[in-house]
């Protein structure tokens, strides 16, 4: 039986295991999906050695960047993004080869594109982790100018305290790539001038639990168009499967 799985730490919030095992059952695919909760990426070789039927992995926080040195090959898109969330495990005789991809960017662009209007030209990306790099790549591919927002002074970022109402009016697409507002901390949200938002504002949250984060709720109260990350999650899962099956 083929095996697929997810590496990350922690994995209590994982959607992938239930999604893929349901898919395998519904489509009568002889495979199983498991969570591999590893406290350090250095344990990846151990996961591979102890699971000889492993054909593919998804990668989540905090390993989307840390996994790259372990790969034998990486898709041009994942290389440009600098983050990997899908690994195809290729067995060649006694050797194992790993190829890295990024399905986040495809899932995100397909999900947000229908929301965009001609007046959406600039975007704020909240957070600077692995997911934010895919979001940046995706937004630029859709023709938007982007700026990263960080809590800390970092090159090529602005800080939350510098986001004025005027900035929100100009950068009217805002994507939350931070865990702020994720269950169980549902009473938290990014520090933004929500009062400056209106019907021209898009708030897109990569979080999907809860369905409506405080970030989305506060924007919607001002008339903003809001969306959570569930559709992106589903779309990137479809793409993951295609990548694993690629010849």
Shape: elongated
- The whole-number mean of residue pLDDT values reads 96
Helix fraction by DSSP (H/I, runs of at least 4): 25-40%
Strand content: 15-25%
Following the backbone from N to C, one meets helices and strands in this order, namely: EHEHEEHEEHEHEEHEEHEH
Please compute the radius of gyration using only Cα atoms: 19 Å
Alpha carbon gap, first and last residue: 19 Å
Number of helices: 8
Q: The biggest beta sheet, please?
A: 6 strands, mixed
Query: How many strand segments?
Result: 12
Structure class: alpha/beta
Strand order of the largest sheet: 2-1-3-5-6-4
* Poorly predicted sequence stretches spanning 5 or more consecutive residues: none
Brief account:
The chain has 247 residues and is an alpha/beta fold. It is built from 8 helices and 12 strands.
How would you characterize this protein structure?
By secondary structure, this protein is α/β, with parallel strands linked by helices. The protein is 30% helix and 25% strand. The chain contains 8 helices and 12 strands. It has helices spanning 16-26, 44-49, 76-81, 104-112, 130-141, 165-170, 214-220, 230-245; strands spanning 2-8, 31-37, 54-59, 73-74, 86-92, 95-101, 122-126, 145-150, 157-159, 173-176, 202-205, 225-227. β11 (202-205), α7 and β12 (225-227) form a beta-alpha-beta unit. It starts with a strand and ends with a helix.
């Amino acid at each position: 039986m083929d095996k697929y799985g997810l590496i990350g730490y922690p994995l209590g919030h994982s959607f992938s295991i239930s999604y893929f095992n349901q898919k395998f059952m519904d489509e009568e695919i002889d495979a199983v999906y498991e969570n591999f909760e590893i406290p350090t990426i250095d344990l990846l070789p151990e996961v591979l050695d102890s699971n000889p039927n492993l054909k593919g992995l998804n990668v989540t926080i905090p390993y989307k960047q840390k996994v790259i040195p372990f790969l034998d090959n990486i898709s041009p898109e994942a290389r440009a993004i600098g983050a990997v969330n899908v690994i195809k495990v290729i067995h060649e005789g006694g050797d194992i080869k790993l190829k890295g991809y990024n399905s986040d960017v495809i899932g995100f662009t397909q999900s947000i594109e229908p929301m965009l209007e001609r007046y959406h030209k600039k975007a704020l990306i909240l957070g600077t982790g692995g997911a934010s790099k895919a979001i940046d790549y995706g937004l630029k591919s859709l023709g938007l100018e982007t700026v990263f927002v960080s809590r800390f002074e970092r090159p090529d970022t602005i800080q939350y305290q510098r986001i004025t109402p005027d900035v929100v009016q100009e950068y009217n697409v805002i994507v939350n790539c931070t865990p702020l507002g994720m269950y169980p901390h549902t009473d938290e949200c990014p520090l933004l001038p929500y009062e400056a938002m209106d019907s021209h504002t898009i708030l897109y949250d990569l979080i999907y639990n809860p369905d409506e984060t405080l970030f989305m709720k506060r924007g919607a109260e001002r008339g903003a168009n809001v969306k959570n990350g569930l559709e992106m999650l589903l779309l990137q899962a479809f793409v993951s499967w295609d990548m694993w099956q690629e010849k």
